[in-house]
Structure formats: structure tokens, C-alpha cells
Amino acid sequence: MKRLVQTTINGEQYEVAVEPYRSLLDMLRVEIGLTGTKKGCDVGDCGACTVIMDGLPVNACLVLGVEADGAEIETIEGLAQITPDGYQLHPLQTSFLQHGAAQCGFCTPGMIMAAKALLAENPQPSEAEVRFAIAGNICRCTGFAKIVDAIMDVEG
Ligand code: FES
Ligand code: FES
């Protein structure tokens, strides 16, 4: 039997009916249609599903949707701002573009959300702190150096 979940996602209120066994990841992607958050492993190993929940980065595949009741969730869809001319990218998104830190892009939403949570706590992290913050996020394409550079060089 489904349960009603009231949650805030990217500043908007949602009321969603989900089965109690459904992950937050499936709630976001299937029930709400926010497919920017990616499903890689679905068991907590890859970080592709990273979102920010009440200020902390979490693997959305390891959180139940019902646990999001009353929570504030941030996903990759909340970063770019809509302007009269189109979109204004978040500085992290711009930095990833400038550094070539997104190749296939599958890990990128999770990487950016992990980085966003880090920078909110620590706006000028060392390279070691950046590498620690994204230690749970796997990229098969970039070799990580460009991602680390992008996070360290972000402006704004
Ligand atoms: S899909 Fe959640 S950690 Fe891989
Ligand atoms: S850019 Fe392809 S997995 Fe990271």
C-alpha cells in the first residue's frame, strides 16, 4: 500500500504516493520524473544517484522515498536558473564544462551534487578534501583529474 510523502525538492513542494519499499532514487526518477539523478549500481557503490538531503549528500538509491517525508531535497535539476535568455548554469556546471570534466556525463550529476555539498561546508577545499568528498563517486571516463580541477577552480 502506498504512503503519502510530502517533500520539498529544489524549493518546490511535492506530495507523492510511494510504496514504502521504493527508494528515493526511484521516487525522483519514476514517480516525479526528475531523471537528472542517475541510477548506476542501485546498491550504493557508484555515487551516480547522489542528491543533497537536508544539506548532506546521500546516495538516493540507499534512502527510502518515505524517509524524504518532510525533508529538503536538492537535485541536479535545481542548479541551473531559468532566465529570459534561456538557462544560467550554476558555477559548478560552468566549471565542469570549462575543464572538460564531463565526458559521457553519467557520473556528472552525482559528482556535482557531492561537490556542491562540499563547497557549502568548505568553500576553499584542498585537493585532498575534494578527493575525499567525491571518494564515493565513480567516473569511468575522465580519470578524475579534470573533475578535481573543476571543483577546485569553481568561481562564485
Ligand atoms: S546508483 Fe546509487 S550508489 Fe550507484
Ligand atoms: S564522465 Fe563518464 S562516467 Fe564520468
Characterise this structure.
- The chain contains five helices and seven strands, in the order E-E-H-E-E-E-E-E-H-H-H-H.
- It is an alpha+beta fold.
- It has two domains: 3-78, Ubiquitin-like (UB roll); 81-152, DNA polymerase, domain 1.
- The strands form two sheets. A five-stranded mixed beta sheet has the order 2-1-5-3-4, with helices on both faces.
- The mean pLDDT is 97.
- Bound molecules: FE2/S2 (inorganic) cluster (FES) (2 copies).
- One FE2/S2 (inorganic) cluster (FES) binds next to loops.
Bound molecules: FE2/S2 (inorganic) cluster
Top CATH class of the largest domain:
Alpha Beta
Distinct helical segment count: 5
- Strand adjacency order, main sheet: 2-1-5-3-4
> Which descriptor suits the 3D outline?
globular
Helix-strand layout with pairing:
Layout (H helix, E strand, L loop, with lengths): L2 E7 L2 E7 L5 H9 L17 E4 L2 E4 L12 E3 L6 E3 L2 E3 L2 H8 L9 H14 L5 H7 L11 H8 L4
Parallel strand pairs: 1-5
Antiparallel strand pairs: 1-2, 3-4, 3-5, 6-7
Bound molecules: FE2/S2 (inorganic) cluster (FES) (2 copies).
The site of one FE2/S2 (inorganic) cluster has 12 residues, from loops.
